[in-house]
Amino acid sequence: MGEFTVHRVRFFHYMPSGICAMAFNRRTERLAVARTDGSVELYSRTDHFFQEKVVPGRQQRSIQALCWVGKRLFGAGLSGEIAEFDLDNLRLKFSQDAYGGPIWSIVCNPQGTHLAAGCEDGTVKLFEILEDQIRFERNMGGQKGRIISLAWHSSGTKIAAGMIDMIKVFDLDSGELRSRGSRMQQSQECVVWSVLFLSDIIVSGDSAGKVKMWDVNTGTLIKNHQVTEWDVLTLSVSQDETSLFAGTSEGTVVQFQLLDVVLGQEEKEWVRTRTFKNHTHDVIALAEADTVIISGGMDTQLVVRPLLDKLDFKSRDSSLLKILFPQRSLVSCAKKAGLLLFQYPTHLELWRLGDTEGHGPPGCILPVSRNPEKLLHLKIKGEDHVCCSAVAPCGEWIAYSTTSGIRLYRLQRDNKNVSITKVPKLPKVLRHAHQLCFSPDSSHLYGTTSSAVHVVALTSAGCKFEHSLKPNSCVEPFGNESQEISDGKFLASANSNSEIHIYNMHKLKAHCTVPVYRSGVSAMGIHPETNNLVIVHADHQIFEFSIEQMQYTDWSRRVQKEGLHHVWLERDTPVINVTFNPQNPNHVILHDSYMFCIIDQSLPLPDRKSQFHNQLTLKSLPEAERLKHSHAFKECKLYQPLLCVDMLENQSLVVVERPLLDITTNLPAPVRQKKFAT
Amino acid sequence: MAALYEATTLCVLNVGPGGSDSGISGIEPSADDDQVVVTDSARSVTVYKVSDKKALGSWTVKQGQTVTCPAIYNPQTSEYVVVTDSKVIRVWKDSDINIDRAFKTTVSADVWRVLSVPDSEPLVLFQRGAVRRLDTLLADPQQPVENVLPEEAVIRWSAVLNVEQQPCLMFLSEQKGETLLLMQRRHPDSAARYRLEGGEAPLSCSALPCDGGVRLFCLYSSGSVYESVVPIRGAGGVVEEVQPLPRTLLLNLPVGEGKLESASAVSLDDAHVALVGVPHPSAGPGKDFLCIWNTNFQTLQAAKEMAGRIYGQLWCSCGKLYVPHGKSLSVIPFKCQKSSLAAAMGKLRQAGSNVPASGLYTSVPSWTAATPDMRSTKRTLLRSRDVSFLRLNQFLEDVKIASAEEVQKKVSAFLSNLKNLHVIQVAAGGLASVLVSRCQEQPGFYPHSALVQLVHSQCLSYSVCPHLLTLALEKKDYALCQFCLQVFPDIPEAVACSCLKAFLSESDGTLDTVSLERDSVAFVEGLIANSTQEGGETQQNGFCPTTQVEDGGGGPTHTTPAVLTRSSMPLDMKCPVGLHKAVLLNEILQVAYSDCFLLLHLKTLSAPQVILFLQYLQFLYGKYSQDLHTQVSALRSPAMTQILDWICLLVDAHFTVLVMAPEARELLSHLHKVVRLQVKVFSELGKIEGCLQALQKAKQSGDVCQYSIEVIELF
């Protein structure tokens, strides 16, 4: 296969944000996750929790609660506003002040007609959901004490509100308060962090570490479970109300189940059954999705824990999944100039890679003759966070987009001096892009919105709008553009519905579409020489589509016929990037968070029984026998976790690593726990 | 070595008012070794028989009169002499019942002390420093007495010693912050004055005669014991000018906080000092001890806790120490042996280890600390202890005359009876010396098994009984030699070398009749057997077994890879000496030595002896290189480093002889090859070292850094 020089980069200090709210939509099987930086991520449950969309965050925005109403997603936070997210354009649709101070919780009624918001001033505010807005209907309560948590009864007539030291139940029909106030803790203040309204009982989780079951009618305590010494922060119940989960400050998730007291008899009781410890920090949000429990918290990772752990066969669905890194690339690489652009939420950093003059055997570290250099630190204007960014291959242009606008900069470098000038007069149509990229010769900038691909020609004088490309069969709203890769002649763009459109850039019109596959497109790339489009889906299927012949290539057909190796298909993080080796047209380079892989298309595919990770075996074999045992997938796990793998023009690899230890050391301290012998 | 035996109470004290005074002003030897004259500080003089703890006679002066100086016994006339009211000298005999009716006379000046002189008339020392013989003074009591000392001078201490068969009187006087030592001799009539260094008056003094002078031991309140040697001038005449008296620090005892107030030191022999009132170094405060210190090694040799108050008084008479403490006067027999480094080290090790303070005195049990249920048996035990000390002396006397068989029986009975290790050590040394000197005197007498038993008791060291090993060599008792070589930790290089010579020159035939220790014999047998059986056999596929790492020269070590040596050296050579000779030579190899001393003595070996020994060493080396010795297990076997060191020493000592001797040529060339191989191996190891360091460096640099450029290879 060969030797590669690897630039091992660890100076991208990417730091994920903590998870502060979650909502699972059972109808669309989508999970919405809000993070502390104000961003909202959408994951598809059916597609192995593939991260489909990201609504970028915004400074000062804090989301305390998320709520699905049909296909619409609402969020509310300490700013006191209720907002709806536009999931097509990936930004806020509208936001409306509830005039009740910070909002701690919102819920929608089972019928999907009303929203209730729990406010700082102690009121529960009801809003009617209209087509494009929400309308205030009435106030309930209004005494002292903030409302921390809310739960709506399935009949839609009662709301339970968790406050400090008490739970109130409101009757919506009569509008009267059926207070069930009982001091929950004698000695100290007790915050009811979470309530659930089941058909006959109310369940509360509080800061005393207890999960309590209350009788709805009498307001008496039925059962008390001491779960932890710290706080119970969140509760979640399964749809059939037989299973209950509580997330605690210790990072544990505790399951309760409604089980028969005596087998075969009617009487049932809530019994504490299982405890999962997958988090190091507070579990702030929980979502139950049929067979899995999804938890998230301050340690920034999303943990999907399957509940059916007695399965005999191992599959992606039955194994624990931890999502820690974004499933899109935050790094763009200028292959010709050897530059890296790092995308942070509020700024961009441009680095020039170092250099070496040394040579050495495999495994050695070469002396660095020139250290990497930070050329640019670009702060973002405005409060919106960056949603995408790109650097041109020649390194002369930088573009980024927020939800409010796109900015293009021209970069001039001469002998250690870097000057940057903003390019004025960007075309009006290009107000916001989901994805930005430059053509390989750096002459064009492509930006995609939800409806079209806009082409801007770049010259030294400035920029000029050239064309807007729209797909031939303009179906429905376009969805959002997730990926878009181009070579000089063709440009391909994929949307969240897994539709891939290919445009001919010479003729400036749509060329063809690729047959739709059931799984989302996680990465794709067009080969610079053969113009073959390599597509990798979230379920790790790989297709190769010949753009010129408008059909799948032979290699792709062979892959589909022989099937991919089960080890490859069982990988739990999606492929983030596809790139090619300029020296060897047979080489396709893929990477996900924990490995990168070079696919040699000239070699046979691994069959089901052969060893997939065979690098060590091959290393120990004499050279003559290697070819006999080698297969197309050359996997390398030396570097992890990976944020980016790309190949420069001089055939050296760039690997951007983010060690887990660096992330965990930057997290706030977890609650102190007495450990044995400390 | 020194030991304190069980204490007995001689009498009950009339403690003075306030309890600060013991009520005893002096204890002097009497007519018999077993009798002492105890002088009360008030009015009475009592003669005790020590072994019976019984008063033989007691005399009291009238009320209003006081005894001002300790009574002495004049063996010349069998009379007791005492001074009352400073000026009245009284002389009486055992038969006198009332002291007032005995002879008395008044002298013209105040008397400080009457001092008994061995084999001569007692001397009377006046307070102003004049000295008279008692008989001349009694002949003319009112004779004028000159003033040697000024009026303000106070005499602190006085003593009479026999130096060069002449009595020598010395006393310390303190005046104006200056302490002077005055020394007077009758023949030739001379007097000398010395100024003590430091000025301060010592708390306690003690003097011993030595070659050409007197050794003066002074204990100061700082806890230091100084020694000064006062020369005895041959020429007579009175030297008027005061000479400085240099002193050397012997002991610096831990005093704790403050200074010593009441303490006393008595020198027992040239190396031991008994001290009372000085705190024990490892006991807590509030306890008083009688300690015997070795001044040569500054080690505590024996200690005994003294219950009750210590008055800082201590007398020594006829091998017994007299200590007033609490309300009784205790008599403690002691024994000091010639001190040896080995014995001192033994005690020092015990004292240095962190044994709890109570564990230190196990050798001398303190009966005052006995549990109540032991009290009932105390009396009988006390007696048996007491008896054991007396019995030892008797036993030694017996051994001097008994036949060899009887000696053997007595010794084994003696060793089995004595359970106390400390006492055994003292006793065994004495016993061995007695036996050895008897053997030297009587050529026919040689108690082999008794000596072997003594050596086996592990209580002997070379320095305790230096002539034992030489005696064994003279008598060709090689078995005893072997035991001595194994047991003694301190054999001098000269003796080890003479043993070596004796072993080498002895014929194999004679040696093979000697019965030696089984284990060592088996070890050599194993070596020789291996050389005949497996000599020609090659090791499997030439693989070199793991080389042992040298563990500080402790066990047998192996430094040369066998394969390298094998290729160029006849390692399967025959053993050049007989079995028993090899065993004895092995013992020599394991003796501790210092190479620069040994080298001198090695030069006295003759050329054939050297060559034979070298051949044997070479044989051993070959065996060790083959790793065969690991198959032969033995408790004691020479280490590889010991073998190599001896080879080096031998070649160093006899290099020219070996070069000249034609029969040594082959030997030398083989040894040369060995050395060359060793050098080669080490240079190879040196080369590897660089690689290993590089590897280590490469591993270390794998740590986290922000940026690196690496090379990887995919297959």
From TrEMBL, chain A:
<dbReference type="GO" id="GO:0032040">
    <property type="term" value="C:small-subunit processome"/>
</dbReference>
<dbReference type="GO" id="GO:0030686">
    <property type="term" value="C:90S preribosome"/>
</dbReference>
<dbReference type="GO" id="GO:0000462">
    <property type="term" value="P:maturation of SSU-rRNA from tricistronic rRNA transcript (SSU-rRNA, 5.8S rRNA, LSU-rRNA)"/>
</dbReference>
<dbReference type="InterPro" id="IPR001680">
    <property type="entry name" value="WD40_rpt"/>
</dbReference>
<dbReference type="GO" id="GO:0003723">
    <property type="term" value="F:RNA binding"/>
</dbReference>
<dbReference type="Pfam" id="PF00400">
    <property type="entry name" value="WD40"/>
</dbReference>
<dbReference type="GO" id="GO:0034455">
    <property type="term" value="C:t-UTP complex"/>
</dbReference>
<dbReference type="InterPro" id="IPR015943">
    <property type="entry name" value="WD40/YVTN_repeat-like_dom_sf"/>
</dbReference>
<dbReference type="InterPro" id="IPR036322">
    <property type="entry name" value="WD40_repeat_dom_sf"/>
</dbReference>
<dbReference type="InterPro" id="IPR046351">
    <property type="entry name" value="UTP4"/>
</dbReference>
<protein>
    <recommendedName>
        <fullName>Cirhin</fullName>
    </recommendedName>
</protein>
From TrEMBL, chain B:
<dbReference type="GO" id="GO:0003723">
    <property type="term" value="F:RNA binding"/>
</dbReference>
<keyword id="KW-0698">rRNA processing</keyword>
<keyword id="KW-0804">Transcription</keyword>
<dbReference type="Pfam" id="PF08168">
    <property type="entry name" value="NOL11_N"/>
</dbReference>
<dbReference type="InterPro" id="IPR042859">
    <property type="entry name" value="NOL11"/>
</dbReference>
<feature type="domain" description="Nucleolar protein 11 N-terminal">
    <location>
        <begin position="1"/>
        <end position="335"/>
    </location>
</feature>
<keyword id="KW-0539">Nucleus</keyword>
<feature type="domain" description="Nucleolar protein 11 C-terminal">
    <location>
        <begin position="395"/>
        <end position="715"/>
    </location>
</feature>
<keyword id="KW-0805">Transcription regulation</keyword>
<dbReference type="InterPro" id="IPR012584">
    <property type="entry name" value="NOL11_N"/>
</dbReference>
<dbReference type="InterPro" id="IPR036322">
    <property type="entry name" value="WD40_repeat_dom_sf"/>
</dbReference>
<protein>
    <recommendedName>
        <fullName>Nucleolar protein 11</fullName>
    </recommendedName>
</protein>
<dbReference type="InterPro" id="IPR048897">
    <property type="entry name" value="Nol11_C"/>
</dbReference>
<dbReference type="Pfam" id="PF20998">
    <property type="entry name" value="Nol11_C"/>
</dbReference>
<dbReference type="GO" id="GO:0030490">
    <property type="term" value="P:maturation of SSU-rRNA"/>
</dbReference>
<dbReference type="GO" id="GO:0005730">
    <property type="term" value="C:nucleolus"/>
</dbReference>
<keyword id="KW-0010">Activator</keyword>
